[in-house]
């Protein structure tokens, strides 16, 4: 099952601000990732997935065309 980065965050009950603080990025960076404008680096994605309690395999990052 694939889920969006936003859905993973919401399911883990984190706000964008909380997630940003936990991995030391700006809130606008989280927004950009969730909207598919940019993608996190592998290390950042791994950390987000750890925090959100999901595997990297089940996180679906939308492409710019979606």
Report on the structure:
- The chain is mainly alpha-helical and 66 residues long.
- Helix content is 52%, strand content 6%.
- The protein has helices spanning 5-11, 16-23, 27-34, 42-52, and strands at residues 3-4, 59-60.
- The protein has a two-stranded parallel sheet.
- It is globular.
- The model is unreliable at 62-66 (pLDDT under 50).
Shape: globular
Which strands sit side by side, in order, in the main sheet? 1-2
Catalogue the unreliable spans.
62-66
Describe the main β-sheet briefly. 2 strands, parallel
Radius of gyration in whole Å, from Cα?
11 Å
Distance between the termini: 18 Å
Helicity level, as a percent range?
40-55%
Q: What string, H for helix and E for strand, traces the elements in order?
A: EHHHHE
Structural class: mainly alpha
Count of discrete alpha- or pi-helical segments spanning 4 or more residues: 4
Please provide the count of β strands. Answer: 2
Oligomer state equals: single chain
Portion of residues in beta strands equals 5-15%
Give average pLDDT, whole number. Answer: 89
What's a quick, concise take on this entry?
With 66 residues, this protein is mostly helical. It has helices at residues 5-11, 16-23, 27-34, 42-52; strands at 3-4, 59-60.
What's the layout of helices and strands?
Layout: E1 3-4, H1 5-11, H2 16-23, H3 27-34, H4 42-52, E2 59-60
Parallel strand pairs: 1-2
